[in-house]
Amino acid sequence: MPKHIAVIPDGNRRFAKKMNIPLAKAYAMGIDKTIDVMEWSKQAGVKMITSWGFSTENFKRSAIEKKFLFRLFEGKIREFLENGRFKKEQLCVKILGNRSMFPKGLIKSIDQMEAETSQYKKFQLNLALNYGGRQEIIDACNKILVSGTKHIEASDFQKFLFTSDIPDPDMILRTSGEQRLSGFMPWQSAYSELIFIDSLWPELTKEDFLSAVNEYENRQRRFGR
User: Is position 147 within any domain?
Assistant: First the structure.
């Protein structure tokens, strides 16, 4: 059983077109699907999920699309804070990425969420927001230059990444049939098992998810040995 699963929840816009529904509704369904996957993971014994929620490239999208996405993010965070779900489920949430470019209200909600959930240990959800793998590595290199370090080992480099205190994912799952990582966790995915499925993210079923986990369990991981 993988301890840490990372997901690339691809296909929200294609799902909206396929079902002939507003894009905002498809994105809302996508956020709810992330919560479903978290619950399925907990039931299966997985202890950590990392989900890519918004990439650095997504800032190129229209102002209207970004606006309702940011409202969806903030609304779901506020909902969980107000109904006590974080505390009830002992759910720790960590944000990976540069939050400084988000609206002030969203930044405030993110900061509050991380502060209020930092002590919980039962399950951890990492959300990659304004995250890009190449940018993460560039930022890490700049931090190393600023520190004045002359020589660095791989284990030291890890300390400068957003995932400095997070284990590498055992498995990376991407939906929608695309078979690439698109810059998601390039450093951390060196020995991750990659699993690609055709279902669009909002239509992912529990059976799809458990089938992917079962495929992982049947693989032999050698780590180069």
Answer: no
| Strand-strand pairing, 48-55 and 4-8 | parallel
AA letter at 80: F
Question: What is the domain-level CATH number for residue 31?
Answer: 3.40.1180.10
Beta bridge partners of 48: 4, 124
Cα(first)–Cα(last) distance of the chain, in Å? 21
Active site residue 58: yes
Does 57 map to a domain?
yes
pLDDT in tens, 171-220: 999 999 999 999 999 999 999 999 999 999 999 999 999 999 999 999 98
Inside any domain, residue 52: yes
Q: Which residues contact 53 (CB under 8 A, 6 or more apart)?
A: 9, 34, 73, 127, 128, 129
Q: Is 10 a catalytic residue?
A: yes
At 61-92, the pLDDT tens digits run 999 999 999 999 999 999 999 999 999 999 99
Q: Which of 10, 12, 126, 130 is catalytic?
A: 10
Looking at residue 89, what DSSP letter applies? T
Identify any residues that bridge with 194 across adjacent strands, giving them in sequence order.
172
Angle among Cα 7, 189, 218 to the nearest 5 degrees reads 75
Domain count, the chain: 1
Q: What are phi and psi of 101, to 5 degrees?
A: -90, -5
Is residue 195 within 8 Å of residue 156, measured between CB atoms? Answer: no
Structural domain harbouring 176: 4-132+169-217
List the catalytic residue out of 20, 32, 58, 165.
58
On whether residue 223 sits in a domain, the answer given is no
